[in-house]
Design goal:
CATH superfamily: Jann2411-like domain
Largest sheet: 2 strands, antiparallel
Distance between the termini: 42 Å
Radius of gyration: 18 Å
Strand content: 5-15%
Order of helices and strands: HEEHHHEEHEEH
CATH architecture: Orthogonal Bundle
């Protein structure tokens, strides 16, 4: 989701956003988004990697579109998983416990990130939870998210979009009452 929201949308929280267009800008945007999310930054992320990840983000974007048929969402993910050689295996550091990953131990950063993200999304779809992969329903926002609510009823990427949508609906009702 982080990659899609940083590199593949043009509207967020009611405002136009311009996705970064160069490798350096993309790399900086990814690093900033990782830091904001409380995730470790990648020291090995290059400008070239960031450019390749922008292509991946564009291919992942339809997975979050509820209007897209589930079969085409699955097919797009399958193609991505094959292209980036996703394969489950255990690997890790020599002095630590092995971890389950969905990329080869020798995979480059883009293949590793894409394989792991693509597999996670495929697992969500495969267990019948595709409806939890959502796009914000607020006007002027294309952000994507994973709905973690108990009844899968979340409609907005965040509180600011929810507030904007509710205020807009209130103004529309008031205008209809006075008309």
């Amino acid at each position: 989701m982080l990659l899609v929201n940083e590199l593949a949308i043009s509207r967020a929280r009611g405002r136009d956003v311009v996705p970064p267009a160069t490798g350096q800008d993309r790399r900086e945007a990814i690093q900033q988004a990782l830091a904001t999310a409380g995730l470790p930054q990648s020291r090995s992320l290059t400008d070239s990697d960031a450019d390749r990840l922008a292509v991946v983000a564009l291919r992942l974007r339809p997975v979050f579109d509820p209007e897209e048929r589930i079969e085409s969402r699955a097919e797009g993910l399958n193609q991505l998983l094959v292209r980036h050689a996703a394969v489950p295996n255990l690997h890790g550091h020599p002095d630590g416990q092995p971890v389950l990953a969905f990329h080869r131990a020798d995979a480059d950063l883009v293949d590793a990130w894409t394989s792991d993200a693509g597999t996670a999304l495929a697992m969500v779809i495969g267990v019948g939870q595709a409806a939890r992969l959502r796009s914000c329903e607020a006007g002027g926002c294309e952000s994507v998210f994973f709905d973690t609510t108990r009844n899968a009823s979340r409609r907005f990427c965040g509180l600011s979009c929810q507030n904007r949508a509710k205020a807009s609906a209130y103004r529309a009702r008031r205008a209809a009452e006075t008309a």
